[in-house]
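hey all, quick one before standup. I had two proteins in the batch that finished overnight and I want to keep them in one place so we stop losing track of which output belongs to which input. First protein below, input sequence then structure tokens straight from the run.
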Amino acid sequence: MSPSPRLPGIRPALVALALTVALTGCSASSDDAEGSQPIAEACAGVSTRVDAAMTAFADVDAADPAAAADALAAVVDGLGDASRSIDNAELEKTVTKLHDGFATLSDAVDAAASGDITGVAGLATATEDIRAAGAEFARLCSD
């Protein structure tokens, strides 16, 4: 499938998001947050799933909206699984926000892949939500 000239906002948004999420890591902080699971343990347990979701997202071909929609659906599923595995309220809330941002982005890209470009307007909001949640994830899970 060739790039669609009707989707000019998707490619830059996907590239920006890929760079943002690629820079967020989880190496486990020594501070505990709310919940029965210490934050370091929660981060260690979820980082593999979050990393797998981010890798899938980084591999998105922004020139192919249908493939991007499929990849984003996999990211959303992976982040949903990750958020359900956390027993730390603060980290669970952050990963859920990351999931929700990607779900919004996925919906917009899926609609665009079907020819409905009205969802493109939501890309800026989704991008900001993902950036904010990614920064919070990195803050919670880094030394």
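OK second protein, same deal, sequence then tokens:
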Amino acid sequence: MKNHFRVAAALMGILASGAAFSNNITTNPGAAAGTQSTGGVVEFSGEIVDNSCDVTTSSKDVKVDLGKWSASYFTAANVETTKTPFKIQIDNCPTSVKTVAVLFDGQKDADDATLLAVAGGAKGVGIKLYNGGASSSQVNLGSVSASVPVASGKATVPFFADYTSTVATVTSGAANGVANFLMVYN
């Protein structure tokens, strides 16, 4: 009986020591992973809030017609067409939300990563986004737009868009682009 108890105790000790070390051991990925060196720490923080504003129905799928332009209009790189306005509206904001901005993202142009890429055949152009209103600066993809104040639980965030050539010779064809957006509340 003593031997069974000793064997059981030894097995429990081995299992417990394995469990204790299993979460603290970093295994070597091997030489195929490349040269290894010291690293650092990444700390994540944030907050989950109870609610935010609502994007209005008309702003969930905005259509912006940039028009038809002759390829010969673009005589060099960085030639822009006229700007076309559009807006994103929100409502039902809680009183804690004071300002709102927009973060656009999408397929970036291969020649200029600040522009939205076009699909459909045209080559050498991208779609440039601008803040509307008093600040008409460019909104780069992946960057937050200028913010606007929320009043009475609502806000309208104005923008402009245009075609911008990225090379001296533009090829004709459809020039469609899709930008996804997230709302940024403060």
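Flagging for whoever picks this up: Residues 41 and 91 are 39 Å apart (CA to CA). The first strand starts at residue 54 and ends at 55.
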